Amino acid sequence: MNHDPHCIFCKIVAGQIPSKKVYEDDDLLAFHDINPWAPVHILIVPKRHITSMADVTMDDQALLGRMLALSPRLMRELGVGNGYRHVINTGADGGQEVMHLHLHVFGGPRPWKKG
Ligand code: AMP
Ligand code: ZN
Q1: Which pairs with CB-CB distance under 8 Å and at least 24 residues apart come from 81-90?
Q2: Does 17 sit in the ligand 1 pocket, CB within 6 Å?
Q3: 32 counts as catalytic
Q4: Residue 1: which pLDDT band, with cuts at 50, 70 and 90?
Q5: pLDDT tens-digit readout, 58-80
Q6: Ligand 1, pocket-test mutation among 20, 34, 90, most atoms within 8 A of CB
Q7: Of residues 41, 49, 100, 102, which has the active-site annotation?
Q8: Distance 109 CA to ligand 2 centre (A)
Q9: pTM of the entire structure?
């Protein structure tokens, strides 16, 4: 499934729910987390609906690589110059709340609210 009409991040990708966009191309969207843990907290998501890392296959390696490789550029553009942290939560025990694959990137001066 490319688009899940009940998925909040698919709705953000489709522009049906507003977001504070950081970056967009044909395959990826990055936006600020609505409930940030750190001074800078963005989410990088594939536009295609992938439920979680548990659904990723080797066919997705380029997409996953692009999500990670995009993050340094975005953090630089957002003025984060002293390091940052990546998190991907998978499934219930992994603490995943939104069932559309997303890469959290946290940065900015500590202390942070969480993480
Ligand atoms: P996770 O626990 O990894 O599934 O994280 C889901 C993240 O999505 C949380 O950090 C939420 O704050 C964030 N989130 C939920 N709804 C929105 C939204 N409408 N816009 C931006 N971020 C959101
Ligand atoms: Zn989705």
Answers
A1: 82/107, 82/109, 83/107, 84/40, 85/38, 85/115, 87/115, 88/53, 90/52, 90/53, 90/54
A2: yes
A3: no
A4: confident
A5: 999 999 999 999 999 999 999 99
A6: 34
A7: 102
A8: 31
A9: 0.98
